[in-house]
Amino acid sequence: MIRDRKPGFRFVAFAIGLCMVVIVLGAWTRLVDAGLGCPDWPGCYGFAGIPMSPERIERAEMRFPDAPVEVDKAWPEMVHRYFAGVLGLVILALAILAWRRREHEEQPVVLPFVLLGVVILQAAFGAWTVTLKLWPQVVTAHLLGGFLTLSLLWLLLLRLGWRRQAVSGEQAMLLARLRPWVVVGIVLLVAQIALGGWVSSNYAALACPDFPTCQGQWWPQADFAHGFNLLQEVGPNYLGGLMYSEGRIAIHLSHRLGAIAVALVLGVIAWKLWRAPRSWQLAPLGITLAAVLLLQLLLGIANVVFSLPLLVATAHNAIAAVLLLVMVTVNHRVRAERTSTGIGA
Fold first, then answer.
1. What is the torsion angle, in degrees rounded to the nearest 10, for the CA atoms of residue 199, residue 204, residue 205 and residue 211?
2. Catalytic residue among 70, 77, 103, 170
3. Structural domain containing residue 288
4. Same domain as 138, residue 270
5. What is the pLDDT of residues 134-156, one digit of tens each?
6. pTM of the model
7. What's the domain count of the chain?
8. Known catalytic residue: 77?
9. Boundary (domain end) residue, out of 139, 163, 187
């Protein structure tokens, strides 16, 4: 692909940076148990900001007698909301700009409006996360929505930043053979991210406190039916989780097995990219994929070995997002090359 930046490229790049900040802040908020730092939405104890003065704190606790004000937890929650709100406005601006430039042939129009729909849905999930008191299904869906928003913004950046180039028939055939690997890799990676969200929302990260074994065994007692019960009752406060040990072990084991599957498939993709002829300029993409994959695996292991350090756990979430963006790039590269030769879409 040839670099050919179109109007709006830098604005989308800014939106991507902002979205990464929102994702990291969301992870930080979950990890410091601040998901219910404000028991209402979109305000905090009925205020636009955090109640700080004794008078406001007193009024807040009168409004929510079952949720005493904890300023240290309200701050992460509200900062996350502020940044998410700004991101929503930026994506709205992207949609408006796309509509104004709709007559330009190379201006994507549908994608910015899909993004706008996703971010509106994300706002709803943000509200439900609070009103349903961290119901794991909603928390996981909210996490996936954030990753989807980031991926769509990245895809928009790719479309605005690089022009497709023609390839030979031999190149097109080889890239077409790589395409199924890439599709399977993305599906497995998204499933693994969803499992990670399920681990986090059910507080199962330390269900296996040792590595590579779990509870000192290669296959400890685990209750998968309980761990993946998607019909949990709505209503209780899920802060801290409600599952018993065997259910959490099942979730944690599933995440470990998913990591092995993702590592194998993405490792093959990285190797195939690295082995491509140098003139195709795919080797750097393969090296990047391998490096990010290795870093993510090491962070996952470090979470267990060092008992979920805050910075490491937050980085694990952020690098998962980066790994997804690398795979979106690989997919875009393969699809772009194939489309330019008329072999599939």
1. -120
2. 77
3. 167-345
4. no
5. 999 999 999 999 999 999 999 99
6. 0.91
7. 2
8. yes
9. 163
